Amino acid sequence: MALLFGAGQxxxxxxxxxxxxxxxxxxxREGASVVAVDIDLDKAEETRxxxxxxxxxxxxxxADVTSKSDVExxxxxxMDRFDRVDxxxxxxxxxxxxxxxEASEESWDRVMDTNLKSLFLxxxxxxxxxxxxxxxxxxxxxxxxxxxGTGHDYISYSTSKAAVGHFTRAMALQYAKYGIRAxxxxxxxxxxxxxxxxxxxxxSSLDQMRKHRAAxxxxxxxxxAWDVAYASVFLASDEAKYITAQELLVDGGLSAxxxxxxxxxxxx
Length: 268
Ligand SMILES: NC(=O)c1ccc[n+]([C@@H]2O[C@H](COP(=O)([O-])OP(=O)(O)OC[C@H]3O[C@@H](n4cnc5c(N)ncnc54)[C@H](O)[C@@H]3O)[C@@H](O)[C@H]2O)c1
Fold this sequence. Notes:
Rossmann fold, binds nicotinamide-adenine-dinucleotide, seven-stranded parallel beta sheet, 8 helices, alpha/beta
């Protein structure tokens, strides 16, 4: 049974998969009973339609992951129906612009609540269940922005994502003895709907944006939502039974390099 928060997908005019949707479909392909939760029920329903198209099914629920009562209701409904939670997957995040001077206090709080407090709330509700079961896998989605500087002024986003790493590490150590594993996936530059909302303002054209992002990656192309989904399937699986408190960078080598991509290379 996999409980996935942020299982919808942000709006996009292009036919591209988001991390949450691809992961929900990937868990269902592996035979998991998926509960797809999103603040936008229609988006979660859309995800369900993809799961159904492949001959599987999932349960859809609406909840705001920043609300303790919403999270409690979801977890209670999951327990009423499945009586267990094997996988908790935290995908939700928002991104708001600005450094410490430009960003408002309200924006800081909103991003921290959505990207970080949400993990605290879902883990608060699910850990006792997993502890009782004596098993469980938690996957929290971070970002390369929480591991390295990106050159974009998103102070609240990058700080919240760095904290996702340490929150997960600390929690994983506390709960390792109960058979619960917790790991982080940090996606790099991914070709997902979100980037068309937040990065287009920096580029003169879509093509320029895609080319520039690809050029910065040692593998010379962006990743996609399926790269995150497959990493999630692995970390949630029994094959990863000895892996906990880790941060997995799914970034095509981006975080391993010094300097930046094509600008410093003479090969195309
Ligand atoms: N897309 C990228 O390039 C990229 C790069 C690095 C990290 N990430 C991380 O991947 C994760 C999301 O993937 P994505 O960018 O493909 O987005 P996504 O398309 O998976 O959408 C996230 C979903 O979260 C939902 N959501 C937003 N606020 C919510 C709330 N308060 N309660 C419940 N649901 C809520 C949205 O409705 C949306 O359906 C985030 O944690 C993000 O930081 C993405």
